[in-house]
Design a protein that fits this description.
Blueprint (H helix, E strand, L loop, with lengths): L1 H22 L1 H5 L2 H23 L4 E3 L4 E3 L7 H13 L4 H8 L11 E3 H19 L2 H14 L13 E3 L4 E3 L7 E2 H4 L3 H11 L3 H15 L11 E2 L18 H13 L6 H16 L1 E4 L2 E7 L1 E3 L2 E3 L1 E3 L4 H13 L2 H19 L9 E3 L13 H10 L2 E4 L7 H13 L3 H16 L26 H13 L11 E3 L5 E3 L4
Antiparallel strand pairs: 1-2, 3-4, 4-5, 6-7, 8-9, 10-11, 12-13, 13-14, 15-16
Helix pairs in contact: 3-18, 4-6, 4-18, 6-7, 7-9, 9-10, 11-12, 11-13, 13-14, 13-16, 14-16, 16-17, 16-18
The chain binds 2-acetamido-2-deoxy-beta-D-glucopyranose (NAG) (12 copies).
One 2-acetamido-2-deoxy-beta-D-glucopyranose binds next to strand 9 and helix 14.
Cofactor: Ca(2+)
Subcellular location: Golgi apparatus membrane
EC number: 3.2.1.-
Amino acid sequence: MQLFLVITTLILSIVYTQPSSLQNVSSLESSNQFRANEIKNAFIYAFKGYKKYAWGHDEVQPVTNTTSDNYNGWGVTIIDSLDTMIIMGIEYNDSREFIKNLEFTAKGSSKKISVFETVIRYLGGLLSAYELTKDELFLNKSVELGNVLLPAFNTPTGIPTGMVDLVKKKGALGVNGHNSVLAEIGTLQLEFRRLSELSKNPIYLKKAQKVIDILQRKCTELPGLYPVFINPYNGTFTTTLVTWGGLGDSFYEYLLKQHIMVQGKTSQYIDMWMLAVNTTMKKLVYTAKGFSNLTYLAQWENGEPFFKMGHLACFAGGNFLLAGKFLNNTSLTNLGLNVTATCYNTYIETNTTIGPEEFGWISPSDVISSKINKSQKAMYKKHGFFVTDASYILRPEVVESIFYAYRVTHDPKYQDWAWNIFKSINKFCKTSIGFSGLEDVTNITSDWNNSQQSFFFAETLKYLYLIFSNTSLISLDEWVFNTEAHPLRIGGG
Ligand SMILES: *[C@@H]1O[C@H](CO)[C@@H](O)[C@H](O)[C@H]1NC(C)=O
Ligand SMILES: *[C@@H]1O[C@H](CO)[C@@H](O)[C@H](O)[C@H]1NC(C)=O
Ligand SMILES: *[C@@H]1O[C@H](CO)[C@@H](O)[C@H](O)[C@H]1NC(C)=O
Ligand SMILES: *[C@@H]1O[C@H](CO)[C@@H](O)[C@H](O)[C@H]1NC(C)=O
Ligand SMILES: *[C@@H]1O[C@H](CO)[C@@H](O)[C@H](O)[C@H]1NC(C)=O
Ligand SMILES: *[C@@H]1O[C@H](CO)[C@@H](O)[C@H](O)[C@H]1NC(C)=O
Ligand SMILES: *[C@@H]1O[C@H](CO)[C@@H](O)[C@H](O)[C@H]1NC(C)=O
Ligand SMILES: *[C@@H]1O[C@H](CO)[C@@H](O)[C@H](O)[C@H]1NC(C)=O
Ligand SMILES: *[C@@H]1O[C@H](CO)[C@@H](O)[C@H](O)[C@H]1NC(C)=O
Ligand SMILES: *[C@@H]1O[C@H](CO)[C@@H](O)[C@H](O)[C@H]1NC(C)=O
Ligand SMILES: *[C@@H]1O[C@H](CO)[C@@H](O)[C@H](O)[C@H]1NC(C)=O
Ligand SMILES: *[C@@H]1O[C@H](CO)[C@@H](O)[C@H](O)[C@H]1NC(C)=O
């Protein structure tokens, strides 16, 4: 009797769940669990390809199955992806073993390393892995790496050089010659602060803080905003270019995040950030001619605005949203939502539904800063922007801002935006062993660029995964992300 009941129930449930689960494909696809899992599977797929064809090299070239070593040759994919594996619950024993045996010495032809890239990808990755696991190995390696970077600060001003020569153990000029880059000298404070706190050695924080003190004392044409090149030997600015995009971007990002990390114990960072944003609102925030609901961030050069914006600058939407949350400031929240929606607009209005590297628009008073042709004009008329660089290199900034929009508003609309982007990446960027950047997002048969940047694992897939996960996973009340999406704990180490 009981057995019969069990069997009947079983048969009934098979009969009934089968068709309804078929009818429910779309509801299944819209479930957060399904989406998070698809993103995790994409990570596993790409990591497997890297492991098979490029283990220990910086990156795999996902079209030719070959390797590249442009980030010191220390296996940057392994370290940059580690905290995402921890967060997604993927076993990482081989990665740990690799890191255990890694030495931060010159590999191959790269005797000079970029301070900025090494800090955000390697040091940020190691510190985050330590904070998530408390595995002492990752802290030990962080200290080793921090010491390798210190010679960069031995300049007359204390402003670090762009590179370190690993053989001479000295600072070296970066790719921008005699200039250091604002976003490079101002994007190591979170990592160096935490390294000092965890290692109980104040030297790293002292060096990093000096840069902020120097900048705060400088008067500039646009209060709170700084030109992107500065000479590290005499401390003078050598350009007038001001931007929230590449070369400027994460300096502003880190001012706010330092404020959050120290829980407002000093007002220095938020004063500097607020001044920058006040001026930005006055001088750089623009709508577009015929599109009053689009909100762009202009650049500034030679005394005037330049109506051009890069994919990199799209991080700013998320930065304003994070500030809106922590400062309880709805005008910042609204600005953040507007910029995020405007950046998403550059995705949905291309043929691949993936956004371009750089775009322009026409100012409300009819100024066009770029030379544009007929088809760009036509595109502008329809969509409120035109493409000036059509490549996509698997960058995260738009999903990053969508992540903040979701965390701040809980509006499922933002999950749908993120899912649309993931589907497009899956459709257009997936190769036989991983994911590749595109040469032309306006072309549905675009060539691949044969590059799978480590930030695809560190940032793009992490933010996408978190958008579909419980908001308590890496809560914004407990963690602050470095510019490579490596979470560091708010407050003490
Ligand atoms: C689909 O699933 C939802 C719950 O997940 C349920 O409420 C709904 O009735 C199902 N629809 C169909 C057509 O079975
Ligand atoms: C790369 O590897 C994949 C999977 O092993 C294979 O299908 C593909 O043909 C390879 N590509 C090249 C260019 O060798
Ligand atoms: C990974 O390492 C952990 C801890 O040392 C160990 O318990 C586990 O069995 C290892 N897993 C595999 C697949 O080797
Ligand atoms: C970390 O470094 C300390 C001090 O040198 C050492 O005692 C410890 O064994 C190291 N831990 C690991 C996991 O390597
Ligand atoms: C600082 O150095 C740069 C590059 O060498 C030079 O162009 C500039 O004039 C110097 N500025 C001052 C104030 O010495
Ligand atoms: C920003 O502007 C507001 C009002 O416009 C003002 O109250 C505030 O003091 C300014 N903050 C800074 C740091 O300039
Ligand atoms: C919100 O932030 C804006 C931009 O910096 C500032 O002008 C304004 O005074 C702030 N509002 C409040 C209530 O703090
Ligand atoms: C945030 O601001 C709103 C309106 O400006 C106010 O009602 C609310 O109490 C504030 N919340 C906090 C936590 O300060
Ligand atoms: C955001 O956009 C809305 C609608 O287009 C507009 O009313 C509002 O002023 C904008 N807010 C900011 C801070 O840009
Ligand atoms: C702007 O407004 C148009 C027309 O109402 C709408 O289709 C579009 O989605 C809006 N775009 C943004 C980014 O809000
Ligand atoms: C992009 O889409 C437009 C409109 O659908 C079409 O006219 C154009 O040919 C497409 N371009 C490419 C390169 O696919
Ligand atoms: C689109 O890309 C293909 C290469 O896959 C190229 O042959 C074609 O000319 C491109 N179309 C346009 C309009 O650029």
